Amino acid sequence: MTRIVAVINQKGGVGKTTTALNMGSILKRRGNRVLFIDMDPQCNLSYAMNAFLEDKSIYDAMMGNVDIKNIIQRLHDGDMIISNGNVSSYELKFHGESKEYRIKEIIEPIKEYYDYIIIDSPPALSVLTIAILTASDSFIIPANCDSFSAQGVDQINSTFEAVRAYTNSKLVCDGVLLTRFLNEFDQDNSIKVKAVAHKNRIPIFDTVIHESIAIKQANANKKSLYDCAPDSKVLKDYTDFVDEWLRLKRGDNYNG
Ligand SMILES: Nc1ncnc2c1ncn2[C@@H]1O[C@H](COP(=O)(O)OP(=O)(O)OP(=O)(O)O)[C@@H](O)[C@H]1O
Ligand SMILES: [Mg+2]
Which is nearest to 121 in space by CA: 56, 205, 63, 44? Predict the structure, then answer.
């Protein structure tokens, strides 16, 4: 069974791309077949995975210009479909009837080749986000421990409810992953985020991702933490997070 998981937060710079990359690379190293899909017009994940950026992108597949099977790049950390700046104009340029179902439709023929499909998303709550959530089994919300994050979690919950009501009744929110955790001040703010999550009945992962220079070094070197900083504490954080997530999925009757 393939599990499709999206990494979502309309707030920028909270660690969505970093989480998608490291989660996927950890799952790949455990012998799973992993596909990354970059849905962000900023193309940060495509860049961080050292993909060939001149190739056709998910935008071309969504517009029906290319067969999705022909644009999968085989990279060190897993298979990948890159993004492109044009993704941001999808909402205006796509004239088919089912904008919200388009990603689900195009990944259907390749699903069977993978154990996990990880979708990195842009910092927005748009039609694209709805299309991503419509295609996904579940989603993870990376969030920083600041006071605006609590507000953001509230907004994501409204989108989640709309998607469940109209386009994907099976969508599950796996939970909020607190990222870039630094000190006691973050500890205080995390209580606010937890309170909002609790109010919305959104789970919070016990694992917290700490602030670490190793992440910036890995990004600059276009590598995952596994290759760039195998002994770092933050890789241990991400490994613990993946273990916690897999336990959660087993609880959902999923044999991961
Ligand atoms: N735990 C961490 N410690 C230190 N730096 C981090 C950490 N997580 C992410 N960063 C850095 O913060 C910046 C933003 O991270 P990232 O790109 O993963 O966030 P994002 O949510 O995907 O951003 P965007 O919304 O722009 O797509 C990057 O420069 C990244 O290297
Ligand atoms: Mg990103």
Answer: 44
The answer to whether 48 touches 17, Cβ cutoff 8 Å, is yes
Chain segment 130-188, per-residue pLDDT in tens: 999 999 999 999 998 887 787 788 889 999 999 999 999 999 999 999 999 887 777 77
Cα 144 to middle of ligand 2, angstroms: 14
Nearest one of 62, 194, 161, 164 to 119, comparing CA atoms: 62
Q: Is 16 close to ligand 1, i.e. is its CB under 6 Å away?
A: yes
Outline where DSSP puts E strands in the chain. Answer: 3-7, 34-38, 73-75, 78-81, 116-120, 138-144, 172-179
State the pTM of this model: 0.95
Which atom, in ligand 1's list, is nearest to the CA of 123? 25
Q: Which domains does the chain have, with CATH numbers?
A: 3-251 (3.40.50.300)
